[in-house]
Specification:
The protein is of the alpha+beta class. Helices cover 43% and strands 25% of the residues. The protein has four helices and twelve strands; from the N terminus they run ββββββαββββαββαα. The strands form four sheets. Strands 3, 4, 5 and 6 form a four-stranded antiparallel sheet that branches. Strands 9-10-12-11 form a four-stranded antiparallel sheet, with helices on one face. The chain is elongated, with a radius of gyration of 36 Å. It starts with a strand and ends with a helix. It is found in: Plastid, Chloroplast.
Length: 265
């Protein structure tokens, strides 16, 4: 049986026994060396550990080498991804809020408000245009609206558009302007409008939740691409939930305000 001495660098293992080709029932492993290094780039930090294991019964050069690599995004990378996705989510949520407000403003509440005509489309020279782009709308008092077109030839088209709308208003065209009288709402009609307002608010909340879902999918995609870790995604999702809650509260606030406006005689 031959025995050979090892170099000082591997003094932790005193000798290696050269065995016949038949492997022994058990082999003992010894740690010969341990090397740890790291490097970074714009996107990742790479941690690399090289471990050499010497198997008793095998030549030194037959040692096992393990080379684990751990990749994770840098803090700058995580913040950049978070900012981009969160910015997009906020922009979409702002639009959802604007949509809810627009729907609320178009609901007649018994008091004159130029926003009531926001959704009225007028056929103007063969193309549908928004009424407020071709006329000035004002409120002479709390129970009437005054529509003054920039082009008097559009008076008939404006009158027709208001009649065909779902506002339930009867326009008075005197050849110069159109006057609209805002009748008081009945108790039954107020209750109906309250339900419509509640439905529109819920639609807004659904839109907010869908935007959150899309943002979470973006985080999950980055995790699959190994750009974010599972813990990163959990933390970012928690932050996104706070943003979602913030916009849910905004919708609830404007809903309560509009509901009160609708139900108040």
């Amino acid at each position: 049986m031959a025995m050979s001495s090892l170099s000082p660098a591997t003094s932790s293992v005193r000798s290696v026994y050269r065995q016949p080709r038949i492997s022994p029932p058990k082999r003992l492993l010894s740690l010969q060396g341990n090397k740890l290094s790291w490097s970074s780039s714009a996107s990742y930090v790479k941690l690399q550990a090289k471990v050499t294991l010497v198997v008793k019964g095998l030549p030194k050069k037959s040692g096992y080498y393990r080379d684990p690599i751990i990749k994770c995004a840098t803090m700058e990378e995580i913040e950049a991804e978070k900012s981009l996705i969160e910015k997009n989510a906020r922009e979409r949520m702002d639009k959802a809020i604007d949509s809810v407000l627009s729907n609320f403003n178009s609901i007649r509440t018994g008091r004159s408000n130029p926003a009531m005509l926001d959704k009225v489309e007028v056929e103007y020279y063969g193309s549908p245009v928004n009424l407020k782009t071709i006329a000035q709308i004002s409120t002479p008092d709390s129970s009437s609206l005054l529509v003054q077109p920039y082009d008097k030839s559009s008076l008939k088209s404006i009158e027709k558009a208001i009649v065909n709308s779902d506002l339930g208003l009867t326009p008075n065209n005197d050849g110069e302007v159109i006057r609209l009288s805002i009748p008081q709402l009945t108790s039954e009609r107020r209750k109906e409008l309250s339900k419509i307002v509640a439905k529109q608010a819920e639609d807004g909340k659904v839109a907010i939740r869908n935007i959150r879902r899309d943002a979470i999918k973006s985080y999950d995609k980055l995790e699959k691409e190994k750009k974010l870790s599972e813990d990163n995604v959990k933390d970012l999702s928690a932050d996104l939930q706070k943003v979602t809650d913030e916009y849910m509260k905004k919708i609830e606030s404007i809903f309560k305000q509009k509901e009160k406006e609708v139900l108040t005689v």
